[in-house]
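Here is one chain, start to finish.
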Amino acid sequence: MEFEYWWLLTFPLFFSLGWMAARIDIKHVLSESRRLPASYFQGLNFLLNEQTDKAIEAFIEIAKADNETVELQFALGSLFRRRGEVERAIRMHQSLLERTDLEEEKKLTAMNELGQDYLKAGLLDRAEQVFSELQQTRYTSGALKHLLEIYVLEKDWLKAVEAAHRLGEISSRSYPIEIAHFYCELAASEIAHSDHAAAREHLDEALRVNRDSVRANILHGDIEIAEGRHEAAIQCWKRVETQNPAHLALVAERLLASYRALDRVAEGMDLLRGYLARYGSLDMLNVIFQAVLETEGAQVAYRLARDELRRNPSMRGLDRLLEAQLMEAPAERRQDLQLVHNLIHQHSAGLALYRCENCGFRARQYFWHCPACGKWETYPPRRSEETEVLVKASMQDLM
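Its structure:
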């Protein structure tokens, strides 16, 4: 392909056009910047210097002076809410709603923001009213999620069930785990008031929604115990194995107590030993260890702890081993063993916690509903020590 020399004549033309376009853009930017108030540039300057409070005050001045800065007011309101200055956020969004010239879509946005302000402030009745009004708008999904959160906080479980069902209808996600727990909460309340018939109905609904609801079977067993039917309770709790065997540790004490009430302790111990061998659990070991210590003595309890420690090494297993050793140790060794046992016990106590998989909150008590992040069934039914051991083992298998 031959080079055409006349193309050289086009380069100055393209350069001139580019220069003119740049000049036009610069003139446009300058003309637009002259319209902006000085407070705007002051606010930007404060932000660049990380003087957030002064920046906010500067932007507030702009919002007061110019009624057209609706988006800026929304941004400020959200900023106030995130900073915990909820009263200022509420005033900002209320002032927007009071404007008669605000278009409908902006009003809905202001209502949605105001509802979030009320929720953050703990004004649940006002937040519920706002989000109820937003249910038939483009904010339907968000409004229902906030209403669900409010109903859980208020422990209004029937409304929570209804909101979760509606959310499932309009979104791709269903809520069987949450709904089952709402029915379990209703059942627990009825059990507390000795209305076992109503509690059974709620638990049947929980299992209909989520057949793997371990909590529903545990509560079914509790009802049977309250009515003196230990054999029926045992059958309820044994069904946990088919749902999620890791949760068997939560019913180990209940199972043993019912077998004891039926004068079938040996049968109960064999069942728990089988669970321990198949699934392993520090809590299961603890229940069996105490029972063996009481019925068969320290030597048998020592052998149990030793065998389990070899199979599943853990600080808590070592703690039990030393406890059994102390009972049989000669006087000259007991003081040294006691010192070691105390150190191991203190260390293992810090590991004997349940940990939420969603937010990491740790607690000595098992929760179906995390008190920190509000999620359901995010606590594995294992202590943090054995959870970390399982994770490490899984990583080694992958490697």
